[in-house]
Amino acid sequence: MLEPETVVTSSEQETSRAGERFAGRLQAGDVVLLSGDLGAGKTAFVRGIARGLGASPDDVTSPTFTLMQEYPGRLTLVHVDLYRVSPDEVGALGIEESTDAPSVIAIEWAERWKSAPQDAWVVRITDEGGDRRKIELARS
Ligand code: ADP
Ligand code: MG
Questions:
Q1: What is the atom index within ligand 1 of the atom nearest the CA of 108?
Q2: pLDDT recorded at residue 65
Q3: How many CA atoms lie within 13 A of 62 on its CB side?
């Protein structure tokens, strides 16, 4: 993996803005693997991706019962949250077969997806105390 790019934010809005800027680099078929503890800001970042792709960001939430949500935009955003999914169950979700539309797939708790594509984007968010978050972006 190349050296990750690092962005430090100090609010939820800034994290979303970082996601929005990052969306400008995304192309159809791209997969974004997000990791970080609960409350790190993964969903906030995905909300920004949605905005950047021209989808409706306000709809992007942490789905409690829905594991996968689609948001149509310039590219369709497929938002997946594996928080309640064990690694053994991930394959059965058929993440990569989830849509026929030209799409970007963004996955929270992505470390649970053992057969994630090799060329995915990797976004790691670390809580550095208070409202400070370190966001590392890399292409695996
Ligand atoms: P995750 O999806 O990683 O569990 P969320 O995006 O749902 O995290 O929630 C992040 C929480 O942290 C929100 O309550 C948000 O207001 C708060 N927060 C505080 N500072 C930041 C920041 N710099 N970036 C993102 N979220 C932040
Ligand atoms: Mg979340």
A1: 2
A2: 58
A3: 13
CA of 40 to the centre of ligand 1 (A): 5
Rounded (10°) angle between helices 42-52 and 12-23: 40
Mapped to the 3 state alphabet, what secondary structure does the chain carry?
A: CCCCEEEEECCHHHHHHHHHHHHCCCCCCCEEEEECCCCCCHHHHHHHHHHHCCCCHHHCCCCCCCCEEEECCCCEEEEEECCCCCHHHHHHHCHHHCCCCCEEEEEECHHHCCCCCCCCEEEEEEECCCCCEEEEEEEC
Domain ranges of the chain: 5-88+96-139
Res 63: pLDDT: 58
The hierarchical CATH code for the domain 5-88+96-139 is: 3.40.50.300
> Is residue 11 in contact with ligand 1, taking CB distance under 6 Å?
yes
Counting as low any pLDDT under 70, the low residues of the chain are 1-2, 62-66
